[in-house]
Design a protein that fits this description.
239 residues; Rossmann fold; alpha/beta; 8 helices
């Protein structure tokens, strides 16, 4: 059984990805930062439906803690599917954006990507089969007002995706990014009303976490073995 790790796996999109990967036969490590209880609840739900999952908690911005946690995780075998889903928002107009808001978003999305992906890459390469899937954002593709920090982080992830894909393409490992638009999670509650959704999104609805999870699961499958270095948007024709 191939093993998968989903960072931020206790959130809306992350939990949907964990459930889908488990349903597809992966043994899933459901990651959380500090809220281990939520990750354990997702893992328990997966096990209750016949899947294989366990919870893991560490701060992706802490390089030493990440390395220690991942080394322990690797004792059970290589992780062959990595979904870098952890991320935070700290929105503000750039002219009034604090250094803390800038640094915190960059730290989780970009440094977190390095802290988790780098220790897992060589063990994955040794198996000659792997999938690295980075959860980006429409903000990293076309930008968004009030999210210069988030757009910068996700844009950098898009570039890192393309470069890493080139480095390890010959080793049987693909690297892709999925760039969701507005998805029905707690993050957009109170942000978009029905009228705004109709005006802003050509499909006139927000996406479902399960739709993002389906795309991620396809990229994690054998069927996607010739897809690498791509930034794939899922946004209702928003851009």
């Amino acid at each position: 059984m191939k093993r998968a790790l989903v960072t931020g796996g206790s959130g809306g999109i992350g939990a949907a990805i964990c459930r889908k990967l488990a349903a597809d036969g992966f043994d899933v490590a459901v990651h959380a930062n500090s809220n281990l209880d939520k990750a354990e609840a997702v893992a328990a739900e997966i096990r209750a439906t016949g899947g294989s999952a366990h919870a893991i908690a560490f701060d992706v911005t802490d390089a030493a803690a990440s390395k220690a946690a991942l080394e322990k995780e690797l004792e059970a075998g290589p992780i062959q599917v990595l979904v870098n889903n952890a991320g935070i928002h700290a929105d503000a107009p750039f002219a009034g954006m604090s250094a803390e808001k800038w640094a915190s978003v960059i730290d989780v999305s970009l440094n977190g990507f390095y802290n988790v992906t780098q220790p897992l890459t060589l063990p994955m390469i040794r198996t000659r089969w792997g999938r690295i899937i980075n959860i980006s954002s429409v903000a990293g593709v076309i930008g968004n007002r009030g999210q210069v920090n988030y757009s910068a982080a996700k844009g950098a992830i898009n570039s890192a995706t393309k470069s890493l894909a080139l480095e390890i393409a010959s080793r049987g490992v693909t690297v892709n990014a999925v760039a969701p638009g507005f998805i029905d999670t707690g993050m957009i509650e109170g942000v978009l009303d029905a009228e705004t959704i109709k005006k802003l999104i050509p499909m006139q609805r927000v996406g479902k976490p399960e739709e993002v999870a389906d795309l991620v699961a396809f990229l994690a499958s054998d069927s996607a073995g010739y897809i690498s270095g791509q930034i794939i948007s899922i946004n209702g024709a928003l851009a």
